[in-house]
Every structure is written in C-alpha cells, then in structure tokens.
Amino acid sequence: MCGIVGAVAQRNIVPVLIEGLRRLEYRGYDSCGVAVLANGEPRRARSVARVADLDDQVRDTRLAGATGIAHTRWATHGAPVTDNAHPIFSRDTLAIVHNGIIENYETLGEVLRGKGYEFVSQTDTEVIAHLIHSLYRGDLFAAVREAVQQLHGAYAIAVLHKDQPHTVVGARQGSPLVVGLGDGENFLASDALALAGSTDRFIFLEEGDVCELKLDGVRIADRDGQPAQRDVRQVAAYGGAVELGPYRHFMQKEIFEQPRAISDTIPQADGFDPSLFGEAAPKVFGKIDSLLILACGTSYYSGLTAKYWLESIAKIPTQVEIASEYRYRDSVPNPNALVVVISQSGETADTLAALKHAQSLGHQHTLSVCNVGTSAMVRQTEFTFLTHAGREIGVASTKAFTTQLVALFVLALTLAKVRGHLSAAQESNYLKQLRHLPAALNSVLALEPQIIAWSEEFSRKENALFLGRGLHYPIALEGALKLKEISYIHAEAYPAGELKHGPLALVTEAMPVVTVAPNDALLEKLKSNIQEVRARGGQLYVFADSDTRIVNAEGLHVIRMPEHYGLLSPILHVVPLQLLAYHTACARGTDVDKPRNLAKSVTVE
Ligand code: M6R
To answer: In 429-476, which ranges are E strands?
Structure first.
C-alpha cells in the first residue's frame, strides 16, 4: 500500500529516496513519485508505472537535490493517473506525500476553494497541501502542527517547502511513520525497511506526533504541541533485498520456506509457559476468562482455526471477529477477556483501529501475534508472541499464516496448562508433535508435481467451491481466498454440512469442488457430503489423509496427504491449497506476487 520516504542531507538524496521506494514496492502500489528542492524550487517526477520507470525519469531529467520526499501510491481518492500521484504541490511552493485517508476533505476543500486555492487532482491529499500552505507564516513545523488539528481520519505525511531548505516535516495519526537518524543527515519513512542501508537507528513516532528533520537533528512535538522525547531504537534486522533464489515467484519461495519458518517460531523451551508471551503474562493468563480475537483476511482465518483449539484444549470461550466489523458495532466488553490481535504486518489499519476500540471499551489485556517486532501493533499491546516467518513479499500470505497457527496453538496449550487442562504427558506429546511439524511439512511440499497436474484443469475454470469441516473449515476458507486473490477465479468456501442448504445448487460438471479430508472425527460425515456432490455430477478434488480410504474414482480425484496429524492437521492441509492456488495462477499468467488491486500491507481503512 502507500509508502513514504523522506530525507534531508548534504548530498543528492534522490538515489536514497528511489531505493527506499524500491524496498516498499512489494507492498503494492499503482503510481509513484519523488520531489526535491532543486536550486530552491520544488521539482518532481511522477509515474503511473513501476519505480524503475520513475528511476529512468529522474536520470533522464537529472533530478537532484539534498532535501526530498517520495511516495508509492495505492489509489483511494482519484484514479491512478499522474495528476493524482504524489508528491502533490500547493502553488509550486510546497510538496507533500500522504498515506491514509482524510475524511473531512470535502469540507476543508470548500473552505480552501473559498480562499482561492485551485485543485488539480482528485485526491484528499491536495487538501492537506493547500491547508498547510494557507497556514504557513515562515515556519513549516508550526504550519503542519496547526493543519493537523483540522484533519479527521488517518494519515502519515511528509512535507517540504521551498523557503525551508534542509527541512522535512512529518506527522502521523493512525498510519505509521518512523524517523531514521543519520550523521549530518536524517530520514523519514512509513516503514523502517525503506531506510535499510541508510541507518539502523530509528524513532517510531507516536500517534499525534509532528516531527521536523534538519541536518543536525530532529525535533518532535506530541499531539498537544509539547516537545516530546522518544526512544531511539537500534534495528539491525533489516537486511538487503530478499533474493528469489531458484523460485519463480516469492509466493512459491515462501510456501517452501514454511518448514524453516515454523521451526523458528516453535519456542525453544521445554514446556508451555505464559512467560513466552511477556513478563506479566503468568499473572494475567490465570485471571482471564475468555478470548476476543480480532484480525483481517488470512489472519482472521488463523483466528478462526485457533477458536477450535482454544475451546477444545484450553476450554476457554473464544470469539473471533473481523476487525473492520468489530470496530463499528456495539459490543459488550469484558475486562477479563484477553484481546488477541493477529497480523502479519502489524500495521493493518482495520486491526489497529479494532484494538484501539477494544481498549477504549475497557479491555485491559491485549496480546499481539505478529511477524514484525517493530510494528505499531506490537508496540500497542501488553503481550506479544512474534512469529518468525521472515519477510513475506508475496501479497498472498502463506508462511505468515502457518506460523500464526503455530503461535496460536502454543497459546492454546499455554492457557490449557494454566487452567489445569494439560497433563505433563500431554504437554510433552504436543511438544513432540510440534517439533516434528517441519519434517511433516516437507513431505506435503513433495506433493507439488501432483498439484501442478491438477492446476492445469483449474486454470480453465471460473468458479470453485471449497469444503471443510470443523477445524478444517477455516482452512477451506483460506484455500478459497488464496485461489481468488491470485488466480482471479471466483471461489467460495463452505462447511461441508452446509452444502445441502444452498450451494449444492451450483454443483455441475463445470464446478470443481475442493475438499480437505483429514482422518478426524468428522470424516464419515464428510464422506457423505462428498457423495452428495458426486451424485450431482460434480468434480471433486480431495486432499485426503492416507488412511481415509477415499480413493480415485469417476469424478473423484484424490491426492494423498502423507500422514494424519491430529489437531495440528490444519497446518499441513493448508499447504496443498496454497500450492494449488499458486500453480493455477501461474497457469493463468497472473502477476502472482502483486495481484491486481491488492496491497501487501493494508494501511487504510
Ligand atoms: O498484515 P495482516 O496479517 O494484518 O493482513 C491482513 C490481510 O490484509 C491479509 O491477510 C490478506 O488477506 C492477505 N492478502 C491474504 O493472503
């Protein structure tokens, strides 16, 4: 999604800004741009193509300057055309880049039009540019502070003004912004990753902060306009570009990285102790009486899977909600509940807002399950369990999902132990199963050639149904999401028992029905559902555990899963669904790692 980079230095900063945009590319965008102060005038280059095209433009036009801002845009207000690409100018004196959405842009726009400002884009951002311009009296920091008081919505901005060389002013509310500290130069970005190679010292700005970058330092004011001291954190974890290696796409690489990612996420300790989640967790976990899980997309499906584990192993009531729904409905808060937010990025606007909403309702205990240790979500929760998936580049989440499942399984076992539902023998047995998971996953990954054969047929379809039961219903949902987001085939998932209540009407020879069939307590029920599809001429594609006795027959295609894995089976069964989506998308020739209209990190509502 949108990305910001800014810098003040005593050298040409354009290459640093372009490199920063390159590092943010994987998040998804549809246009990009850069502006610098060149001989005291703001000059810019913008492109509706890739950052590489922008780079060509800046080289061709010799755009150079020591003070600059840059942006990747994911369109919200106004189409992805050059006029709407950032940086946006106000009267050729001020340039701004903006992530987020300004909700009162129409009202502000009318006032500014009344003052003679002319709008040349369809963006909400242009309102901020003119607003700051209208408030500028020789001090950009003061003008930005005054302007943000009038903004409603979520934003992170970076601004420069022709009369203030070596100055970039930033502000954030609801969207992340981080300051990077250099020697005689300073930086700003929406993600520390953008500044890798330039610095490893960061200040993560807090909600409402406004900052001013100069060559010799950075000053910050809090939401009340008071000078604020923020911790400087050393973050060495942001290495160079991630290599694709022998893989065709990052998604494929990330699917195959799952054994390693899972192994890194499984705690080293010999048991499930609440201290795995934070120092104060042993005290708090004993007191909580329920869980409220909030997440979006794939992370929501990991929460749905966890509900089965939490209620069956830990016997703790668990509610799972889509973050964007929870925040806008009236709910009954329970101060004794543990609110769990799940997110790969830790920056998803809907999940962050849901967390804030839960806290405002009086929920005091919060836990984040997250893949990014420096993210806003981790910083805003009482407890944390970090997944160690490593950087996930593909928009379609794969290793982030399976590592979330591991984290949530560990949470279920920890709560079971605290609540007296886990014997020492069970604990050591589950630990053994977890430790064996990476090896079991490798056997599942070895099914790839068989899945490629199926994907050829799938690539010619326009619809697909996914079925699962119990613990594997969320896995069917995840399989359908994977297929639709990267292959653009319309896919829906149902609990298999629901088939006869409606979706069976869709079943014809043209409709592939993908079924996850573990050898669990619901197997016989699932077999009946399979027969319901066969009787109507449907084509079934079943991933069946080897001991299920589901075999190939007319209209019934079976791939055998290597072994049944009990309660951890969802972690294995989702992998062939990831591979099926991946190879189907490849066969259809889509942009697998950057599917149309989607972004990796969804930082707007
Ligand atoms: O970073 P998050 O886990 O909070 O992201 C949530 C969703 O946007 C994300 O899982 C999305 O659904 C993926 N593209 C699915 O593959």
So the answer is: 463-468
Question: CB burial class (10 A; 0-12, 13-18, 19+) of residue 245?
Answer: exposed
Mean pLDDT score across all residues of the chain: 93
In this predicted structure, the answer to whether residue 390 has a pLDDT above a threshold of 60 is yes
Q: What is the pLDDT of residue 238?
A: 52
Question: How would you class 424 by CB atoms within 10 Å of its CB: exposed for 0-12, middle for 13-18, buried for 19 or more?
Answer: exposed
Does 162 qualify as catalytic in the annotation?
no
Instruction: Give the 3-state secondary structure of residue 472.
Output: helix
Residue 128 vs residues 77, 125, 397: alpha-carbon distances, Å:
13, 5, 34
Is 278 exposed, middle or buried (CB count within 10 Å of its CB: 0-12, 13-18, 19+)? middle
> In ligand 1, which atom is closest to the CA atom of 395?
14
**What b/e string do you get for 121-151 counting C-beta neighbours within 10 Å, with b at 16 or more?**
bebbbbbbbbbbbbbbeebbbbbbbbbbeeb
Residue 370 bears catalytic tag: no
- Reported as a pLDDT band with limits 50, 70 and 90, residue 155 is very high
Q: What is the DSSP letter of 397?
A: -
Distance from residue 330's CA to the centre of ligand 1 (Å): 25
Question: What's the 36 CA to ligand 1 centre distance in angstroms?
Answer: 34
Q: How large is the angle between the packed helices 125-135 and 105-114, nearest 10 degrees?
A: 50
Residue 296 CA, closest ligand 1 atom number: 6
What domains, with CATH codes, occur in the chain?
A: 3-234 (3.60.20.10), 250-438 (3.40.50.10490), 448-588 (3.40.50.10490)
**CA nearest 579: which of 392, 447, 476, 475?**
447
- Distance in angstroms (rounded) separating the CA atoms of residues 588 and 352: 35
Q: Determine the atom of ligand 1 nearest the C-alpha atom of 348.
A: 4
The active-site residue out of 2, 296, 370, 586 is 2
The DSSP bridge pattern shows strands 365-370 and 337-343 to be: parallel
Q: Which of 18, 377, 5, 376 is nearest to 157 (CA)?
A: 5
Q: For residue 156, is it left (φ>0), alpha (ψ between -120 and 50) or beta?
A: beta
Task: Report how far ligand 1's centroid is from the alpha carbon of 41 (Å).
Answer: 40
Q: Report the pocket of ligand 1 as residue ranges, CB < 6 Å.
A: 296-299, 343-345, 348, 351, 395-397, 481, 485, 601-602
Separation of CA 424 and ligand 1 centre (Å): 36
Banded pLDDT at 242 (limits 50, 70, 90): low
